[in-house]
Design goal:
heterodimer, A: 5 helices, 61% helix, 0% strand, B: GMP Synthetase, Chain A, domain 3, 32% helix, 24% strand, globular
Chain lengths: 88, 521
């Protein structure tokens, strides 16, 4: 499991606390809204927390990136891409 | 109509014209404007560099034919070009009309309906197409700001207090959107009063994320230039991220933002109340001195959270487009739950109908510029005051409390008048309730339309709502109706300032409401 995935799992589980899912149990392909009740407001908070921990600015993502987030795997991919881009 | 209660601010103070001053002073080289937007690097420039760029844009506006009193529309999300254009328009005397893109971009009639000479836009949309030759992509403003200009000065416009320099659009919480011109005197009065209360200065960094199409958000740019402080501009989606990077001293927001911030602090502190203060400072930095909120009432638990648990005062105020800022809590006079005392130059009265009526030394205007027939007469009284339609009272020390809209009075089938907002505020604090509106006009009893919180136990919420304390008239909630998605700007059930569109909600759920009442009978 990559470092990005670990961070995403931990934060999604925290924001989705009401669902009772732990970071290890989280299904990366489950829809965040339907499965974990992550509303658009919670998604902003989740993205903010992820950006903060990973040292990435939320402005690195354009509107299409943000509108396209459906699952935890989308988050892992987006952050990997941004971090890869920053490292390149 | 007899006035029952009367409170006025202390005598008027000599007023400096901040609007005229903006282009007659040198802007600070030691203070900065920073703009963050999605998909682009942050832009940071000193105010003196900003002034240079604004002057170039002013030259360019003149070159493309913009003359004093010409009206220019700006349909754009927050970005540097918005600010450049607004300040350059003030310089050349053009009248700006700021449009929130979401509600206005689809209107092909925009330029024609509001007599726009040009429409500056950040996206291809029907409004831009409808403006034809008058449509200009806002990127051109950025290019003009860094392009050489012909020598010579563009003389700054000298405004009188009743000159209009911008047009405001109401959010439409009470029906169709209306427009009114804002006088320079009203802007000067507000900015001077705010400065006396908050003393923004060189150590400050103001954080702004609400749309710049709202005139009050541009106040903080004018304030930065005039009182020499930093200002950061972003948008609502980025606000929670940017605020922790920028470490502001002041955050200008609305209740919904502070509710999100509260949730974020609670999550990061893992619910440990002892850590809220430290976590808040970790997120916001150690320089934050206060939060500003308005537009809609803040929840008592949110006010208490920031005040008591985080040690950061959240100052509520009161005002509307037609009045500008009327009252404000501030460091020198703060009473939680109230919306503060009247600003200098404002006389506030509670009329015989318990409605707040506002007299201003420098009114925003005395009628709408564009509105359905009869709308101006309903709000602008012949004596120059504004009949706000909000219900309120003063306490013995002169703090104003807003208790609801006159429109929030529900008249039941049995003729009982019920002020539903206090009931809504109580219900909104119940566990599992995300949003609520109480209705019942012409019905046998009150109904609560509830958007439940994620994962809420609906049976428990229903029971809680039905047991919520009854109104002063002894009425409690007879019908509880759950809706699958909440009220939002996108579905047209909230205004851009977060207020519920009560009538639109009743229309939207008409069938479900009939059914819910039917099931009860």
């Amino acid at each position: 499991m990559s470092e990005t995935e670990k961070v995403v799992r931990r934060h999604v589980a925290k924001v989705a606390r009401a669902s009772g899912t732990t970071a290890d149990e989280l299904n990366l392909d489950s829809p965040l809204r339907q499965e974990y009740a992550i509303s658009s407001m919670k998604l902003v908070m989740l993205m903010t927390a992820l950006c903060n921990e990973m040292g990435v600015s939320l402005t690195s993502f354009d509107e299409r990136n943000l509108a396209g987030i459906r699952t935890s795997r989308d988050l892992v991919r987006m952050f990997d891409e941004v971090k890869g881009g920053a490292a390149a | 109509m007899t006035m029952q209660v009367f409170f006025s601010s202390p005598g008027s103070k000599p007023m400096r014209s901040i609007v005229n001053g903006i282009h007659s002073i040198s802007w600070s080289p030691d203070h900065y404007l920073t703009v963050h937007r999605s998909g682009a690097p942050a832009l940071r420039l000193s105010l003196s560099e900003l002034q240079l760029r604004v002057n170039r844009v002013a030259h360019w506006l003149r070159a493309i034919g913009v003359k004093p009193y010409d009206r220019i529309g700006i349909l754009s999300a927050n970005r540097l070009e918005w600010i450049l254009l607004d300040l350059a328009a003030l310089h050349v005397g053009a009248v700006t009309a700021g449009f929130d893109p979401e509600p206005f971009q689809g209107r092909a009639d925009l330029a024609g309906s509001y007599d726009l000479r040009f429409l500056f836009h950040d996206r291809e949309c029907a409004a831009a197409q409808g403006a034809r030759d008058g449509a200009i992509l806002i990127d051109a403003v950025g290019e003009a700001s860094v392009s050489p200009v012909a020598s010579g000065e563009v003389p700054p416009m000298r405004y009188g207090p009743i000159d209009v320099c911008t047009i405001k659009f109401t959010s439409g919480s009470t029906g169709e959107s209306k427009a009114l011109g804002a006088t320079v005197g009203s802007i000067d009065q507000s900015l001077n009063s705010v400065q006396r209360m908050f003393a923004h200065g060189p150590g400050d960094k103001l954080f702004v994320f609400l749309p710049l199409s709202l005139l009050q958000q541009r106040y903080w740019i004018y304030s930065a230039v005039t009182f020499r402080h930093d200002v950061v501009v972003t948008n609502a989606k980025l606000a929670l991220d940017v605020v922790r990077r920028e470490r502001p001293t002041v955050v200008m927001g609305v209740p919904a933002f502070f509710e999100s911030l509260k949730t974020m602090i609670e999550l990061e502190a893992d619910g440990d109340a002892a850590d809220f203060r430290k976590t808040a400072r970790n997120i916001l930095g150690d320089k934050v001195r206060y939060f500003w909120t308005g537009s809609a009432p803040a929840r008592p638990d949110v006010l208490a959270f920031f005040d008591d648990a985080c040690g950061i005062p959240l100052f509520e105020g009161y005002g509307m487009n037609e009045t500008c800022i009327v009252t404000k809590n501030h460091p020198g006079a703060h009473r939680r739950g109230s919306v503060g005392k009247p600003l200098d130059g404002m006389d506030v009265r509670i009329n015989a109908d318990k409605v707040i009526q506002v007299y201003s030394e420098h009114p925003v205007n005395t009628s709408y510029l564009y509105a359905p027939e009869g709308a101006s007469e309903r709000i602008f009284a012949p004596d120059g005051s504004v009949v706000t339609g909000d219900l309120g009272y003063f306490d013995k020390d002169g703090y104003l409390y807003v208790t609801g809209r006159a429109d929030d009075i529900v008249v039941l089938e049995n003729g009982k008048n019920i002020a539903v907002r206090p009931l809504e505020e109580r219900i909104a604090q119940l566990p599992g309730v995300h949003q609520v509106v109480v209705i019942g006009s012409g019905r046998p009893g009150l109904a609560a339309i509830v958007s439940p919180a994620d994962g809420a136990d609906l049976a428990a919420v229903r029971e809680g709502v039905q047991q919520s304390a009854p109104t002063e008239n002894g009425e409690s909630i007879a019908v509880v109706m759950f809706i699958p998605s909440g009220f939002s700007l996108e579905n047209g059930l909230l205004t851009s300032q977060g207020k519920v569109r009560r009538r639109a909600i009743v229309d939207h759920y008409a069938d479900e409401i009939d059914k819910a009442y039917g099931e009860r009978s």
